[in-house]
Design a protein that fits this description.
By secondary structure, the protein is of the alpha+beta class. Helix content is about 50%, strand content about 20%. The chain has a domain of about 110 residues: Jelly Rolls (Sandwich). It is globular and about 55 Å long. The termini are far apart.
């Protein structure tokens, strides 16, 4: 039984010990090495993930060959590209592991069967998805409307650990600035 899954279930459910044990035996937990590509741009997503430990990067490669980072998913976050997953259309993004990652791996079929047997699991999933969606809306609004320094400060406030976990050029791409600009911002904000 995966210790990260057990910790998560204990802190986020009101299930009995026997229900929790049964769920944990049925949930697929996989460990992926750093650099593993979970989904390629242009492929159709047939899986969803939940990060128990690790960091997943969502990015795309444009026609010009330039990579743009759109999101990072870390502990306690769902990783699902709804359009590709639900509508069965090619993904506009890659998903790759920036670190060794322990993930719950699901599919539409397995989800529905689990929800039928454990209705509370559906409620927990829905609550988590709503929280993640609300955070994504806030992040998008910030990235669109804030000055670069303000974007960086907000990231420090909301996700301080990300700064140390993600390569600077990917972090800069996520913030919509160049790596050089990010270096200048960090230097300006670091006390002498």
């Amino acid at each position: 039984m995966n210790k990260y899954l057990r910790q998560f279930m204990e802190s986020n459910t009101q299930l009995s010990e026997s229900e929790m044990r049964e769920i944990m035996e049925r949930i697929l937990v996989s460990i992926y090495q750093k650099g593993t590509v979970l989904l390629k741009q242009g492929d159709i997503s047939d899986k969803c993930y939940f990060v128990l430990k690790g960091c997943i990067r969502q990015y795309a490669i444009g026609d010009d060959g330039k990579e743009t980072t759109y999101n990072f998913f870390t502990e306690g976050q769902s990783v699902i590209l709804f359009k590709s997953y639900k509508q069965k259309v090619p993904s506009a993004y890659f998903l790759s592991c920036l670190e060794e990652s322990t993930l719950i791996v699901g599919s539409l079929d397995s989800e529905e069967k689990m929800y039928d047997q454990f209705p509370e699991l559906k409620n927990i999933t829905r609550t988590m998805m709503e929280q993640n969606f609300g955070q994504a809306q806030d992040d998008t609004a910030l990235l669109m409307g804030a000055a670069p320094e303000e974007r960086y400060l907000r990231l420090l406030e909301k996700r301080p650990g990300l700064i140390k976990r993600v390569p600077q050029h990917q972090l800069a791409s996520y913030l919509g600035i160049t790596p050089e600009s990010l270096s200048r911002i960090k230097k300006r904000l670091t006390p002498p």
